[in-house]
Structures are given as structure tokens and as C-alpha cells.
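User: Sequence in, structure out. Go.
Assistant: Echoing your sequence, followed by the C-alpha cells.
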Amino acid sequence: MQYEFANETIAERRVILAEWLSQGVCTVTFTKVDGTVRVMPCTLKDELLPAVVTESTRKISPDVMRVFLLDKQEWRSFRLDNVISVSQE
């Protein structure tokens, strides 16, 4: 299943992505700040997150989503307005 983003607001994108990512592993495709396209396998599903969650001292922007990157087992983030699509495995 895949969802292509087009004219959604930042808030709508956050809701859609949070729902998909909380259900399991997703592949998020987005444009990085440097202009390159990144395809990232990630999740927000509790059972797939590390047991110990370290708190970041960074200020979290409402325009950014923080996710757990499965291939590197690290937390990463991306700008919601740069998301192209999300697909669920």
C-alpha cells in the first residue's frame, strides 16, 4: 500500500505519517535539504523501538517528524513538507 502526498497541510501529513508509522514498518520517500531524494525504512511502532529512548536536547519543530530508522537502528528526522510518499510493507 502506498500514499502519494500532494496538497496536504503539514498537520495532515503528520497525522497520516504517524498513523502509518505506528502500525509497522514503512518506507518514507522525501527530498533532503540538499535536494537529494532519500528512501528511508522507518517506524514508530512501539514493539520495534529501542527499549531505552534517549531524550534529545534539541528543540523539536512542528514541521519535522522524528522516526526510528531501522537499517541503522538510530533516530532520524525529516521535514514534513518534503515528504513525497509513504508505503507500508
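User: And one key feature?
Assistant: The chain has one helix and six strands.
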